[in-house]
Amino acid sequence: MSAIGHQPMEMRQCAFCGKAIAGHLNQCPFCREMVPQVRLSRSSSVAGRQHIRRGLLYMLLAGVIYYFAAGYAKPLEIPITVQPAVINYLAPLLFLGGLGLALFGLVLKAKS
To answer: What is the dihedral of CA 37, 43, 47, 52, to 10 degrees?
Structure first.
């Protein structure tokens, strides 16, 4: 026999008796218990939130690096000299990268 146009039946396990039942059934035919339908969302909002958090963390890190490297913390000076490239290029680049990552997370969250 040919099963043209037929999808294979989804099976799942009954939470009460453990036997395999069809995926569309709400009640187990063996133990007669009601089996709840579980729907898992595949939204990317979790990934979006992670990108937003990571971006904000990078922005905060860039601000802290700039604060201490530029000499604004006079009583708490760091004992090493910081190259001007860190203050002029690397800290702002880290801040802008974090801003871009946070905006990317907002776009991912808006899509879901």
So the answer is: -120
Q: Report DSSP letters for 49-92, one per residue.
A: HHHHHHHHHHHHHHHHHHHHHTT--STT--SSPPPHHIIIIIHH
Tokens 């453990």 -> residue: 18
From residue 72, give the alpha-carbon distance in Å to each of 21, 38, 46.
Answer: 68, 55, 37
For 16-37, how does the pLDDT look when each residue is reduced to its tens digit (9 = 90+)? Answer: 898 999 888 889 999 988 887 7
Q: What is the pLDDT of residues 55-65, one digit of tens each?
A: 999 999 999 99
Containing 8, the helix (H) or strand (E) segment is none
DSSP assignment, residue 40? -
Tell me if 68 sits within 8 A of 18, measured CB to CB: no
Report the Cα 2 to chain-centroid distance in Å.
44
Burial class of residue 55 (count of CB atoms within 10 Å of its CB; 0-12, 13-18, 19+): buried
Residue 18 contacts residue 27 (beta carbons within 8 Å): no
